[in-house]
């Protein structure tokens, strides 16, 4: 467990800011305590300072997890968000998309979202912007990247992909051994 380097922090915050914008600072400056990001086995954990100090008493080879895993760094140094970060991204999301009930299941199986499955989209969503995907009942289902802007979506062909899938809550079942 170690603090992130400057390059790792930059990569992490760029990814987070594509979903929650300047609200990234709200993850660090919380009224309920001091929180930070730590790296352990190529995974980035979001943890309170109190729990981080407690985890420091456990030998590194025995430490599997602490805090919430936000994602991991690939061998090339790119950061990939995990679905476990959804609970922290959803309340601060700038760009949202709501799915019709028939498209929810397809998204939860790991498929992209096409236009017929879109119920509503945030007006200020730009192309290639990170979006949080919700059901019509405002339940966060996952996140992805907008393939079309909000304006392009309105006039798009029904077969066009609107959101590229990145992660969904169905991964808890499909890939549970890789999430820890």
TrEMBL record:
Subcellular localization(s) per the UniProt record: Nucleus, Nucleolus
The PUA domain sits at 95-170
Protein's name in the database: 60S ribosome subunit biogenesis protein NIP7 homolog
| Species for this entry | Caerostris darwini
- Cellular component terms, GO, for this chain's entry? nucleolus
What keywords are annotated for this sequence in UniProt? Answer: Nucleus, Ribosome biogenesis, RNA-binding
The record's comment on protein family reads: Belongs to the NIP7 family.
Any one Pfam family here would be pre-PUA_NIP7
| PANTHER family with a match to the protein in the record | CYCLIN-DEPENDENT KINASES REGULATORY SUBUNIT/60S RIBOSOME SUBUNIT BIOGENESIS PROTEIN NIP7
């Amino acid at each position: 467990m170690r603090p992130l380097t400057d390059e790792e922090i930059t990569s992490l915050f760029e990814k987070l800011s594509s979903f929650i914008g300047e609200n990234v600072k709200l993850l660090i400056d919380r009224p309920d305590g001091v929180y930070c990001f730590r790296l352990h086995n190529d995974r980035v954990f979001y943890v309170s300072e109190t729990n981080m100090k407690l985890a420091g008493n456990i030998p590194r080879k025995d430490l599997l997890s602490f805090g919430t895993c936000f994602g991991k760094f690939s061998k090339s140094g790119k950061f990939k968000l995990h679905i476990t970060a959804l609970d922290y991204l959803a309340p601060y999301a700038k760009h949202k998309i709501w799915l019709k009930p028939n498209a929810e299941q397809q998204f939860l199986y790991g498929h992209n979202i096409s236009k017929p499955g879109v119920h509503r989209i945030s007006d200020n969503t730009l192309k290639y912007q990170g979006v949080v995907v919700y059901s019509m009942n405002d339940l966060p289902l996952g996140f992805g990247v907008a393939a079309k802007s909000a304006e392009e979506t309105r006039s798009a062909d029904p077969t066009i992909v609107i959101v590229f899938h990145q992660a969904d809550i169905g991964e808890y079942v499909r890939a549970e051994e890789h999430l820890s």
